[in-house]
Design a protein that fits this description.
single chain, 261 residues, alpha/beta, seven-stranded parallel sheet, 41% helix, oxidoreductase activity, Beta-ketoacyl-ACP reductase, Sc_DH/Rdtase_CS, NAD(P)-bd_dom_sf, oxidoreductase
């Protein structure tokens, strides 16, 4: 497939999990890809190597997107290397799960600085380049936690709700400049950190998702590739939940056939 042929993309947090899957899919569809990472150097190098094995072009870019100046530098590295930018996928983020009353100032600032401040200033710098190219597309990776509540995720959910609002507002502000802004909200997606969750198994994850299985990074990547493609030219300001039906299900339910008397 070459639906993104000639397009230049930057994917943040592309060293593992969802970001890695997105970077590889954009490359498969013909895009040149900037592969950003913060700490996952080995995974990011694997991403670049796989893109090159496919005959594509990729650039490895390291940076701490919790720092505003680093957001600008990372975007500028991609722009300077490739001559511009058509696509930004804001994916780099952090999850910190704990009881609301246990959340410290340090944890609060860590999560907000990366999850929403990082998105904001990466987008701001990317838009400067997109304006010179006559348009572009931004996809923000949000979460089902921005849609509904779940225990121990107060800070994380707050950032994802902010991302949703930011997506809608930016879509309207940038529409006259032909820059589309959308968001993808993953549900339960098995990424490397799940390996360290106590008592988690794929079989257990399957019981939590109406579709009957946990999601994988490859389930998210095609949705992102579609939204940044010309086929989605009339789509902006939308939040697409890729969650196996999780957000569609009523929280209070009983097994089929177990009708109340």
């Amino acid at each position: 497939m070459s639906t993104l042929s000639g397009k230049i993309a930057l994917v943040t947090g592309a060293g593992l999990g969802i970001g890695q899957g997105i970077a590889l899919e954009l490359a498969r569809q013909g895009a040149t890809v900037g592969v950003h990472y913060s700490h996952s150097a080995d995974g990011a190098k694997e991403t670049v190597a796989e893109v090159e094995r496919m005959g594509g072009r990729a650039l490895l870019i390291q940076g701490d997107l919790g720092q505003i100046q680093e957001c600008r530098r990372v975007v500028d590295e991609a722009v300077n290397a490739f001559g511009g930018l058509d696509i930004l996928v804001n994916n780099a983020g952090v999850t910190r799960a704990d009881k609301f009353l246990n959340i410290s100032e340090a944890v609060y600032h860590e999560v907000f600085n990366l999850n929403i401040q990082g998105y904001f200033f990466c987008a701001q710098q990317a838009v400067r380049s997109m304006l010179k190219r006559g348009g572009g597309s931004i996809v923000n990776i949000t979460s089902v936690h921005g849609y509904a509540g779940f225990p121990r995720h107060s800070v994380y959910a707050a950032t994802k709700g902010a991302i949703n609002a930011f997506t809608r507002e930016l879509a309207i502000e940038l529409a006259p400049d032909h820059i589309r802004v959308n968001a993808i909200g993953p549900g339960l997606i098995e990424v490397p950190r799940y390996e360290h969750l106590a008592n988690y198994t794929s079989e257990f994850g399957a019981t939590l998702v109406p579709w009957g299985r946990p999601g994988l990074p490859k389930d998210i990547a095609p949705a992102v590739a579609f939204l940044v493609s010309d086929a989605a030219d009339f789509i902006t300001g939308q939040i697409l939940y890729v969650d196996g039906g999780t957000t569609a299900r009523l929280g209070l339910f009983w097994e089929q056939g177990d009708e109340p008397q």
